[in-house]
Amino acid sequence: MRIEILDENTKKHLLEDLLKRSPNSYGEYEARVQEILDTVREKKDEAVFDYTKRFDKAQIDGTNVLVTEEEVQEAYAQMDENLLRIVRRALVNIEAYHQKQMQYSWFDSKPDGTMLGQKVTALRRVGVYVPGGKAVYPSSVLMNVMPAKVAGVEEIIMVTPPGKDGKVNPTTLAAAKEAGVTAVYKVGGAQAVAALAYGTESIPKVDKIVGPGNIYVALAKKAVYGHVSIDSIAGPSEILVLADETANPRYVAADLLSQAEHDELASAILVTTSRELAEQVSRETDRFIQELSRGEIIQKSLDNYGHILVADTMEDAIDAANEIASEHLEIMTADPYQVMTKIRNAGAIFIGEYSSEPLGDYFAGPNHILPTNGTAKFFSPLSVDDFLKKSSIIAYSREALEQVHEDIEQFAEAEQLTAHANSVRVRFEE
């Protein structure tokens, strides 16, 4: 990995490079995506099945687009029993963590005759997109579905691309069953997003779409926002490690590569105050690449978006971390908790040398659907909140309104909204 001195110039160029990976930078795909969305909106099932045949080479129609219970049981028979046990253990952790996020309705009554409150209601139906093809991500199923289940969503509709044989990966299906998905449909890509957003003869319209996908899925979600809600526009994976001279270079290198292996656009960055550590980590990454199965992808990722930045002080390193606002942030310093208090922008923060990033991906409990491309400055991880909506409650008695009606009328008249003022005034006419 290349080693650079951290200064304003290197930080500026780094941020510019990282932003190039955003789905917002791939405008040439937008017209194709919009064509798919428009066609599905008009032709519904017919378009969905045509696109599935064209892109996934699978013969899907109204008789087999919905995964049957027999297919689910067949998936269980094919799934590794030990992996199923691990999935169930992870689910316990994920559910317990998200239960602590749950919000409830509240009401506040006062003796003067006023009652204010907030009614919290779960969304009725949500859609979960799960990637297919060669990639199999049962962890993504768990992370997208469980907060919706905890929130109390009635219907969770999952879509995922089928293989050429018209089947869904058995591990994905079993994970969906364990997490509590209502129905699974064999459709992927932008056409799946369109089906969820607009509804077809076979696939019901949902209130919100969540889950990661390729550039077509990301742009389709962006385009249908407004017809439905979405979680976020997911970009390539990222990790930033903050470290000082006390860090173990082998651990740091291993953790950087854990994200670089996702794809060639993934970003892996070390910011350290130790030149010696920087050189050791660079050597360790070279060694690991020779051993790991996805070494070629890792190398391209590091060549494009891998950086080791050497800072003068830990304060400078922390400032850089807050500017980059990485999806995953690991802190490996002599006093990681003290450093953590100064972090403002990160999707998930991993503290100490034994809190490696895959803990968050699979098992610990916090959600691994995280803000990318610097959006951790204003977005949060997927949570129970994403599946709840809130309504304000206002109740005044005549006596309570009488105390304030003249103030309201004056406020409305100051804005020249006389009908607003009249709406209150008529209640106190002689």
Q: Describe it for me?
A:
- With 430 residues, this protein is of the alpha/beta class.
- The protein has three domains: 150 residues, 3-Layer(aba) Sandwich (Rossmann fold), CATH 3.40.50; 206 residues, Rossmann fold, CATH 3.40.50.1980; 32 residues, no CATH class.
- Helices cover 46% and strands 17% of the residues.
- The protein is built from 17 helices and 14 strands.
- The protein has a six-stranded parallel β-sheet with strand order 1-11-10-9-12-13, with helices on both faces.
- Helix 9 links the parallel strand 7 and strand 8.
- The protein starts with a strand and ends in a 5-residue tail after the last helix.
- The mean pLDDT is 95.
Set down the secondary structure blueprint.
Layout: E1 3-5, H1 8-19, H2 30-43, H3 45-56, H4 69-78, H5 81-99, E2 106-109, E3 114-122, E4 125-129, H6 138-151, E5 155-160, H7 170-179, E6 183-186, H8 189-198, E7 208-210, H9 215-224, E8 229-230, E9 238-243, H10 249-260, E10 267-272, H11 275-291, H12 295-305, E11 306-310, H13 314-324, E12 328-332, H14 336-340, E13 348-351, H15 358-362, E14 388-396, H16 398-414, H17 418-425
Parallel strand pairs: 1-11, 4-5, 4-7, 5-6, 7-8, 9-10, 9-12, 10-11, 12-13
Antiparallel strand pairs: 2-3, 3-14
